[in-house]
Amino acid sequence: MHTSDVHGALFTHDFIENGPAKGSLAKVYALVKKERERQGNNLILLDGGDVLQGQPTAYYYNFVVPERPHLVARAMNLMGYDAMCIGNHDLETGHGVYDRFCKECNFPILGANVLDENSGAPYFTPYVMIEREGVRVAVLGLLTAAIPHWLPKNLWSGMSVENMLESARKWSEYILNVEKPDLLIGLFHSGWDGGVQTDKYTENMVRLIASQVPGFDIICFGHDHDKRIEVIRPDWGGKVVCVGLWSQAASVSMIDVQLEFEQDKLVRKRTRAQVVSTLYVQDDSVFDFERHFQDDSVAVEHFVNRRIGAFSNTVYGQDAFFGSSALIDFVHQLQLDISGADLSFAAPSFFDMVIHAGDVYVRDMFSLYKYENMLYVLRMKGHEIKAILEMSYRLWTNRMTNEDDHLLLIDNLLNGGKGYGFVNLTFNFDSAAGIRYQVDVRRPDGEKVLIECMADGSVFDLEREYLVATNSYRANGGGELFTIGAGLTHEELMDRIVWCSERDLRYYFMEYVERHERVSLKPMNHWCFIPEDWVAKATQRDRELLFGWKRLHEADRGSKNID
Q1: Domain with 63 in it
Q2: What pLDDT, on the 0 to 100 scale, is given for residue 552?
Q3: pTM
């Protein structure tokens, strides 16, 4: 069995939404317990990484009470995990968190392609050998090679990250020759295929490794949050069963392997894989798990339910996709105020969420901003700023040829083609504040953004250098807006960084609300889509297709987040 991308979802209560969670490790625990009753010691339990970021359950033990034994480590120890592969969001918590977490886990943390920068040896355990009834099982861990292009160096200092394909070839050959396992399992924190692709790295490489690297029987993977079972039959014969999962413990794999021996020689392998949803799991073991960590749950609940202030008006996340919006402009304003930069870049870290007028709690700041990004300031020339915006709106908007076209770049991508979704990832939909501009959706890609002036009315100069505030993910090349978009190499981008905040952005949001007590959030209106008449009609249509309602304020649908 394997889990992946749990993102701190340990309990059946979602501490951000203050309601039932869509998945939980508590429910996985119940399924694992039942399987152990059937399989005994022959059950191997693995995790594909990204457990340390996403829910307040992890954040609380990462940063608020770091002196206490980590809740996630204790939960995984209780469940009897055999190995875990480190994930990119685990590394994003920084050395102080994941180094401590690794020491507290009673199982190895894998990552063969994450190397010690000085010695060249793996920083984490490269692979683990597990023996069950004389059967030798090797588990090799690999992480997406995008880390140096996404995360600030201080978070992974002393490390380098090797290409996944090269590392898979090297280590699989070593394991097969030296360990001679009966079964080789890849435990990868990398999606199935594609993702962000540059001349330096490809984000998702499972399909490629399964097709090109001999020796693997099974690859358990995650990172792209996509439930998937694929069987690759490579040229050299045999098959590789590849299994991916939904995030937040909403699913778990069950991969049954039968090995047949004749006179101590392995002659046949049979593999059957399924992905099981945890949504409808109801078992006393779920409550046993939660009772075991009841004191932790109460502590986290007290933390997230602390009132920090009030909002004078209700704000809606979906507004961010249709123009200047109160929530994203709140992020912009704080980034500008904290940094003193000339302009700010920010994108939605949410899909559809609501923060209601009235009291605001710590949990609301987790809805507003999912991850522990720092605030960075970089030097950027005017033409680079424009190029970044052009790439963002190319990913974000359709080219309208008439008033009946889509405003947004959406398609029938959900529920088997029955529901609309964005073609591209919404966390790459950066808007800017500090400059005034229009986005003409009739114009071709690369010519949509019409910058008028700075927000104070002064001239915006394409050749002048400006100070730009953004989050650490973007500043380090995440999403490629600053590399592919602005045409900067990763090395050039690192040279442009002039300042970094000491704390994560969510901390500053909480501090701001507490300091002001009552906050009124309003759009800054530094930008808009044009032409207005086409945009107004298209907005109404696309909003209904994406969010299922014609007018934003005709009903109060509550709050939800879709990752």
Answers
A1: 2-300
A2: 39
A3: 0.91
